[in-house]
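Our consortium's second objective concerns turning raw sequence data into structural hypotheses that experimental partners can test. To show how far this objective has progressed, the report includes one record in full. It was chosen at random from the queue rather than selected for favorable results. The single chain below, 312 residues long, was entered without modification.
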Amino acid sequence: MNREILWGNQSYQGEFILLGVADRPRLEMLLFALVLVCYLMVLLGNTTIIVVSRLDPGLHTPMYFFLSNLSFLDLCFTTSLGPHMLVNFWRKSKTITYGGCVAELFISLALGATECILLAVMAYDRYAAICHPLQYTTIMTHSLCFKMAAVSWISGFSNSLVHTAMILRLPLCGRNQVDHLFCELPAFLKLACVDTSLNEILMLSTSTVYLLVPVSLITVSYGYIATAVMKIHSAEGRKKAFSTCFSHLMVVWIFYGTAIFSYLLPHSTSSQDEVKLTSLFYTFVTTMLNPLIYTLRNKEVHKALRRLLKQS
């Protein structure tokens, strides 16, 4: 897409400048190192999960089906933003085409919304496994797992399609400086030279549905899980279960908390730097932690890796 945007009496082919933190070279290099490390760990950890879950028959369960979906999603999410962001950290001219900016916005918003729903689905799967172990296989059938995953992906992309369609209708009047590290919806709305109240109302309502509702359901699910864990007779078993649940919740709260800060809370009292760093957290830090917390600490995965290494 190559859209012409008016700038006073002149016009130019749509190109945006991502301001990022170019005025602070040291911070820029620090963020480059952080993003690079996170991105490499995302690639390694999530690729490992997908390959192992696919090749080992012992991991063909609902839990690892959803974890594979999450890993694939995180790979796409970070890859849609990471490489261009890493290159821009070293470039003096931190530009992106209009089409590239819209694509970044659409893909990141779609995958972010999908992850919000998918994490809630995974919490329900854990609730069913721990609170109803005898009925688990009849509750979490292959058909239901596929439908729940499909709903997550379709709802996420539908949400992004609506927002992107509304964004494309906004006149920008030559404003081409995006005060962010990448093209994100709240930052893009600031470029419009008309009233964006309708877009902001839509963003607020969909953010409530995709952020507050899932995190509330996840918290309730883990409340039931904690109650079930308390009934475990073994102190070691209770300690292990609580450790796992706590680590899961920490990652979930970091992801939803930073996303809520970016999309729901007013930024009048927040500096733009805080908004940029918060976006980095739910884009790179939590996607790096997901494979570490959910899977790579798991003994089942360790055994599956050993089996695959012996076979190879």
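The partners drew two points from this record. The two ends are 46 Å apart (CA to CA). The longest strand covers residues 4-7. Both points have been shared with the crystallography group to help prioritize constructs.
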